[in-house]
Design brief:
The chain has 221 residues and is an alpha/beta fold. 37% of the residues lie in helices and 16% in strands. The protein has seven helices and eight strands, in the order H-E-H-E-H-E-H-E-E-H-E-H-H-E-E. The protein has a two-stranded parallel ribbon with strand order 1-2. It starts with a helix and ends in a 10-residue tail after the last strand. 14% of the residues are buried. Residues 3-221 form the Aldehyde dehydrogenase domain. Its EC number is 1.2.1.27. It is an enzyme of class 1 (oxidoreductase).
Length: 221
């Protein structure tokens, strides 16, 4: 968001997630290196109080947010009440629709990258693939490619998947996978028991694929 905002002549206050602010700091360093004047891009850290200050401050004229439904609804209502222009992109649920004549190699590569890149945690991650005509002709090769991905620490050069962000996130994912299996979905690939040597207590989950998922299942919703 900030390159667009500053190009249009605005200053910008960025509050990254308190759980992973590192990338925002790297972007700020690059912006300074590129010659962005001091005070144009500003980064603040914190949780609820900082968010509320951004929503309330009269000097801030617009707010943009990407994240969870709960946080987004709070930000939208509070910032709007202060007369700000607000956009909130919340609770993304991204689908791929695969037609029977799709190029197999390109499609499988795209599904693997979109589904498992960044351990599936980015807002544009692909959580659902809809195969027109059924998924079974695709499953064996999909599982083969997903199983070949290397799960390791995020700083390891060979890592395809790093850990998820917290123990709570790992527990939630594992419960949703189990609920899918309990509700009748086929667990085609189960990555819950993966162990990374020297990081046995890490929040790692390997690639996981559920098939025959229905729209009323908690794992889908």
């Amino acid at each position: 968001m900030f390159p667009i905002a500053v190009t249009c002549g605005n200053t910008f206050v960025l509050k990254p997630s308190e759980k992973d602010p590192g990338a925002a700091m790297m972007l700020a360093e690059l912006a300074m290196e590129a010659g962005l004047p001091k005070g144009v891009l500003n980064i603040v850290h914190g949780t609820h109080d900082v968010v509320n200050n951004i929503c309330d401050d009269e000097a801030i004229k617009a707010v943009s947010f990407v994240g969870s439904n709960t946080a987004g609804m709070h930000i939208y209502s509070r910032a709007s009440a202060s007369g700000k222009r607000v956009q909130c992109n919340m609770g993304a649920k991204n689908h791929a629709i695969i037609l029977p004549d799709a190029d197999r190699d390109a499609t499988l590569n795209a599904l693997i990258a979109a589904g498992f890149g960044a351990a599936g945690q980015r807002c544009m991650a692909l959580s659902t693939a809809v195969f027109v005509g059924g998924s079974e002709p695709w499953e064996d090769e999909l599982v083969k490619r997903a199983s070949s991905l290397v799960v390791n620490t995020g700083t390891a050069n060979d890592a395809d998947l790093g850990p998820v962000i917290s123990r709570q996130a790992k527990d939630r994912i594992c419960k949703l996978v189990q609920s899918g299996a309990d509700s009748g979905a086929r667990l085609v690939l189960d990555g819950r028991e993966i162990v990374v040597p020297q990081f046995e207590d890490g929040n790692f989950i390997g690639p996981t694929v559920l098939a025959d998922v229905k729209g009323d299942m908690k794992c889908y919703q």
